[in-house]
Amino acid sequence: MAEIKLSEMRDLTRIERIGAHSHIRGLGLDSALEARSSSEGMVGQTSARKAAGVIVKMVQEGKIAGRAVLLAGQPGTGKTAIAMGMAKSIGQETPFAMLAGSELFSLEMSKTEALMQAFRKAIGVRIKEETEVIEGEVVEVQIDRPAVAGAASKTGKLTLKTTEMETVYDLGGKMIEALGKEKVQSGDVIAIDKASGKITKLGRSFSRSRDYDAMGPQTKFVQCPDGELQKRKEVVHCVTLHEIDVINSRTQGFLALFTGDTGEIRAEVREQIDTKVAEWREEGKAEIVPGVLFIDEVHMLDIECFSFLNRALENDMAPILVVATNRGITSIRGTNYKSPHGIPIDFLDRLLIISTQPYTPEDIRKILDIRCQEEDVEMSEDAKVLLTKIGEDTSLRYAINLITASALACLKRKGRVVEMEDISRVYELFYDVKRSTQYLMEYQSQYMFSEVPAGEGDEDETNAMVS
Ligand SMILES: Nc1ncnc2c1ncn2[C@@H]1O[C@H](COP(=O)(O)OP(=O)(O)O)[C@@H](O)[C@H]1O
Ligand SMILES: [Mg+2]
């Protein structure tokens, strides 16, 4: 690999699983990092949110690598929601990668390879490149009629000016096409990348601000550039190490980034890339941007994964690792040892622990309000009171799930507003964990592989932190 490919990267939008957390738009903190009682879709859980905000701040200030944070708390107390909030408030340029512990065991690659890829998705590289651009206000675009009808190559002329000079450029077919695609017309201020021929519209010149015909509501006005038409400009790309890995691994190719079908990446490829990136850093061409790697359900990891994490965090490019679990004292996967959260003590020792607390009825009510809005469900006051009560007695997540179901029940009876009757209907229809467990206890002899001796059993998920 003589040179590392970079051209094809950029703007691969992060793939996030939305749905349950679609209402979360940030952490809802003020400028002093205090949690607002309800903001950006976030309600309550103020100290955990504040702590998460401090972590985000650390990440944004950059340069801090290899720290790890644990979000610990009962199911449905907003651990995943807080991680989503961190992702949203961290900014576009900082990478955020997310992984659920169980995914490691279902991918078609080794656990450590999957973890390695996740780590490298959370490490950004900011690369500076100098390019030559032509930047000016379009005076005129003139396209010649082909002498012979249907002749393949069009020609034309483009006149550009700055406040100090004006130049006429000859146009080839490719440029004409590009100008057409961007709908460039006189009065636009454009930049042309000399190496790639890429045209960027910067806006409309202020001198045309009275030209009502040629603008939409979003028209942006800019000054006519001054000085020379040709300039050297510094452009900055931000990519992740994983993106560089995939693009440069011959068996995969660039498209693998979209299909997610990246397979295992050879160690030599990574070594070469690390060497190259180190060179760029020394030359001042590149900077490392440590991002955030979030591993949900971390108790699903086994002892091998934990030792991988221990080692990976020592790397000087390591991202900030955030893990979450709802387990109390339980055995570490792959061993017979028990430990807090199912996490080995040596790894636990690295972690800053943020704990999430059960919600108050007011918080539950507010979160349900937000979810109703998010799902476009209208609900009567009585119904909301009932649903809040259900949320207190069962779980927040169960109550949230009933919103959609009760809206369907309401629709079925041709109602417009969800009433108490719809809520109680779906409450009977869908069991929560408590009732389901009770039912299983009563009828277990009729199920296959029943292991619980009569009269015993956990109320929640096995080992989950039940207060
Ligand atoms: N503080 C909060 N503000 C708004 N919505 C929340 C909050 N906490 C949890 N939720 C929502 O409640 C549901 C359950 O929370 P979740 O984050 O999945 O819990 P956990 O990961 O701790 O089990 C999700 O839909 C989540 O978006
Ligand atoms: Mg969760």
UniProtKB/TrEMBL annotation:
Residues 65-358 form the AAA+ ATPase domain. Keywords: ATP-binding, DNA damage, DNA repair, Helicase, Hydrolase, Nucleotide-binding, Nucleus, Transcription, Transcription regulation. InterPro entries: AAA+_ATPase (IPR003593), P-loop_NTPase (IPR027417), RuvB-like (IPR027238), RuvB-like_C (IPR041048), RuvBL1/2_DNA/RNA_bd_dom (IPR042487), TIP49_P-loop (IPR010339). It comes from the Eukaryota. GO terms for biological process: box C/D snoRNP assembly; chromatin remodeling; DNA repair; regulation of transcription by RNA polymerase II. It is an enzyme of class 3 (hydrolase). The keyword DNA repair applies. Pfam families: TIP49, TIP49_C. Gene3D superfamilies: 1.10.8.60, P-loop containing nucleotide triphosphate hydrolases, RuvB-like helicase, domain II. Its EC number is 3.6.4.12. GO terms for molecular function: ATP binding; ATP hydrolysis activity; DNA helicase activity. It is found in: Nucleus. Belongs to the RuvB family. This is RuvB-like helicase.
